[in-house]
Specification:
Length: about 170
């Protein structure tokens, strides 16, 4: 039985009514660093993206799910990207939009649900993520879910006039 439901949150597919939420996230310069974005997105482009969100992960190589609480409040997003069926691996990213909802266990629960889904339903052997060296909260989150630092990419991202190091973390199925 497919379950993307946790104790406090559930994960669901993108819906057309997520347009404004996605638009706000994609155009929030404070999080461009983690999404490697440098330009704003129009609602037109995001609508096109949502129109194609139903496509299969095997075709588009990614899956974006919405993190919601049981009052149906949209809290954030969790993504599988660079899906590689041949090598049974993919990247993972998670974002809780509002600071007031961070550090409350929502990302941890979403990541746990996604890990279970990735191994059980997608048959993935390995998940990985890229996290800035100074993003202590994200490093703690992913390490707490069985991801290990396997390398440090020096001067990897250019942010606000200086270079930042980025860790590569992996979680390999036992």
């Amino acid at each position: 039985m497919l379950t993307l439901k946790g104790e406090h949150i559930y994960l669901r597919a993108l819906e057309p009514e997520d347009l404004n939420f996605i638009h706000d996230i994609e155009n929030d310069e404070s999080i461009w660093e983690i999404s490697s974005t440098i330009t704003p997105y129009s609602k037109f482009l995001i609508k096109q993206y949502l129109d194609n969100a139903h496509k299969d992960i095997y075709e588009v190589k990614q899956l974006r799910l919405v993190i919601c609480d049981y009052d149906n409040v949209v809290l954030g997003l969790i993504d599988i990207f660079d899906f590689d069926a041949k090598n049974n691996r993919a990247g993972v990213g998670v974002l809780i939009k509002d600071n007031s909802n961070r550090q409350r266990g929502y990302a941890k629960e979403a990541l746990s649900l996604l890990i279970a889904y990735s191994t059980t339903h997608l048959g993935l052997h390995q998940l990985y993520c890229n996290i800035s060296e100074d993003n202590v909260a994200s490093l703690k989150l992913f390490e707490g879910q069985g991801f290990y630092k396997i390398g440090l990419k020096k001067d990897w991202n250019y942010v606000n006039g200086s270079y930042k190091n980025e860790y590569l973390l992996q979680r390999i199925k036992n």
